[in-house]
Amino acid sequence: FYLGRVSIQHRDLYKVITENGEITAEVSGKLAFLAKDNADYPAVGDWVMVDRLEDSSGHAIIHHILRRKSIFQRKAAGTSQECQIVAANIDTAFICMSLNNNFNLRRLERYLSIAWDSMATPVVVLTKADLCTDIDAKLAEVSSIALGVDVLVTTSMKDDGYTAVSNYIGHGKTIAFIGSSGVGKSTLINRLLDQDFLATREIDGADKGRHATTRRQLIVLPKGGVVIDTPGMRELQLESADLAKSFADIEELAQRCRFSDCTHQKEPGCAVREAITKGLLSAARLESFKKLQVEMNYQGLNSRQIEQEKLNRMFSGLGGIKQARNFMKEKNKRK
Questions:
Q1: How far apart are CA 26 and CA 239, in angstroms?
Q2: What is the mean pLDDT of residues 230-239?
Q3: What is the pLDDT of residues 74-107, one digit of tens each?
């Protein structure tokens, strides 16, 4: 067998980079038979073992996927409960968010949670700084939630931001750019490559538009590193995201609460609520934390199970009976 790395995934076929160049490959029958879900198939960034170094006589066969040191995954689009691996074996995940209409702290918290869970190191990249008039204020907001994470600022008009990004790229390192469509990921990659390798598209003022890239790609950079380009994620959902790291400030405060099972609502001795009262923590951040916790609890449940879980949560808190009655009233109104 020969070592290769998946560079492009297109349905059931893969492009694999080997020591002799790029070849087209498909998975072996055994690998497909043993696969239990999408996560058991190759993804962009995977190191794989193939049976040949050329494909002139037919597609190469992928027989084995080497152990992944990191994976970036999301719930498959639509209603499927399966996970979809967006990229594998990433060292640094650049979370891109523009400083104009795309700026959304709650969305950033979601990306940070999943980035931490991937085992890659997250770095926040704020793009389109030339379109922002209050950069310092936005930087302060981002720094307040991206605890322990480097934050970079870029603009299409200057090289400073691109130089900062390139400092994270070295021989043998793999990076990925993630974020909504139209925030400048392809522009960043083109700048790092010093060429228009990826097509970019103009979008409207609301940062809405068609995806600038339609399939994941692994690209070798001049400095020896590798970049994985991923399409914009419109249906970002949590699976096993690491909220403890993304909300380390709340987790630390929660350790000081009088009760170990404090829900940070009306319990006496709640250190989290006290921090909000003193202006040390924003109420919006706590609500975002709770919302993501609930979303994680509901992952993989059907509609009946979700309603049961809601009732369980109502009865577990203070005033549970009253909340349950209100819930049933609202449910009956919708019928």
A1: 28
A2: 48
A3: 766 554 566 778 889 999 999 988 888 778 888 8
- The torsion angle over the Cα atoms of residues 129, 130, 133 and 134, rounded to 10 degrees, is 20
d(C-alpha 277, C-alpha 247), whole Å: 18
- DSSP code string of 231-264: ---SS---SS--HHHHTHHHHHHHTTSSSTT--S
Which amino acid, 226? V
- Residue 275 CA to residue 281 CA, distance in Å, equals 6
Phi (first) and psi of residue 203, to 5 degrees: -130, 170
Cβ within 8 Å of residue 38, ≥6 positions away: 76, 82, 83, 84, 85
Pairing of β 92-98 and β 121-127 = parallel
Residues 293-326: tens digit of each pLDDT: 766 654 544 444 445 544 554 455 444 445 555 6
Residues in the chain: 335
Q: Which two tokens stand for residue 324?
A: 């349950």
- Give the pair of three-digit tokens for residue 49: 């073992």
Task: Dump pLDDT digits (tens) for 100-148.
Answer: 877 888 888 888 888 888 889 999 999 888 888 888 999 999 998 888 8
pTM to 2 decimal places: 0.67
Pick the closest to residue 88 from 18, 171, 177, 6 (CA basis). 6
Q: What are the chain's domains? A: 2-65 (2.40.50.140), 71-229 (3.40.50.300), 243-334 (1.10.40.50)
